[in-house]
């Protein structure tokens, strides 16, 4: 039973990585500039550095690529929530 479980886990990880490589190579060549406008003129060295992350995080990057989100995600923290609650008068406007 343990051997079968190990084979399933290793097979799942291998499948995930194969899909990641198949996604990651085209992504660093063509897609990185569509997701992040600052990376349009990225050097080959930058693209090589981004490749392992794009292989590992391919589901998140594929989602951003499909939805064509170019703006970075907005951080949600207590400071931003407090600033949003303040009226324009209290902020000095």
* Biggest β-sheet description: none
Rough outline: flat
User: Unreliable runs, pLDDT <50, ≥5 residues?
Assistant: none
Structural class, please? mainly alpha
Based on CA atoms alone, the radius of gyration comes out at: 20 Å
- Helical region count? 4
- Structural domain count: 1
Distance between the termini: 67 Å
Average pLDDT, rounded to a whole number, is 87
Can you give the helix content as a percent range?
55-70%
* Oligomeric status: single chain
Give the H and E element order.
HHHH
Write down how many β-strands occur, each being a DSSP E stretch of 2 or more residues: 0
Instruction: Please state roughly what percent of the residues sit in beta strands, choosing from under 5%, 5-15%, 15-25%, 25-35%, 35-45% or over 45%.
Output: under 5%
SSE topology sketch:
Elements: H1 2-35, H2 44-56, H3 58-67, H4 78-85
Q: Can you give keywords for this protein?
A:
single chain, 93 residues, mainly alpha, 70% helix
What's this, in brief?
By secondary structure, the protein is mostly helical. The protein is built from 4 helices and no strands.
């Amino acid at each position: 039973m343990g051997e079968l479980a190990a084979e399933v886990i290793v097979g799942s990880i291998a499948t995930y990585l194969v899909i990641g490589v198949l996604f990651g190579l085209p992504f660093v060549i063509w897609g990185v500039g569509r997701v992040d406008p600052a990376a349009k003129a990225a050097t080959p060295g930058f693209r090589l550095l981004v490749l392992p992350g794009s292989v590992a995080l391919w589901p998140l990057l594929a989602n951003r690529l499909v939805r064509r989100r170019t703006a970075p995600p907005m951080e949600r923290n207590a400071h931003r929530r407090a600033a949003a609650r303040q009226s324009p008068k209290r902020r000095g406007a």
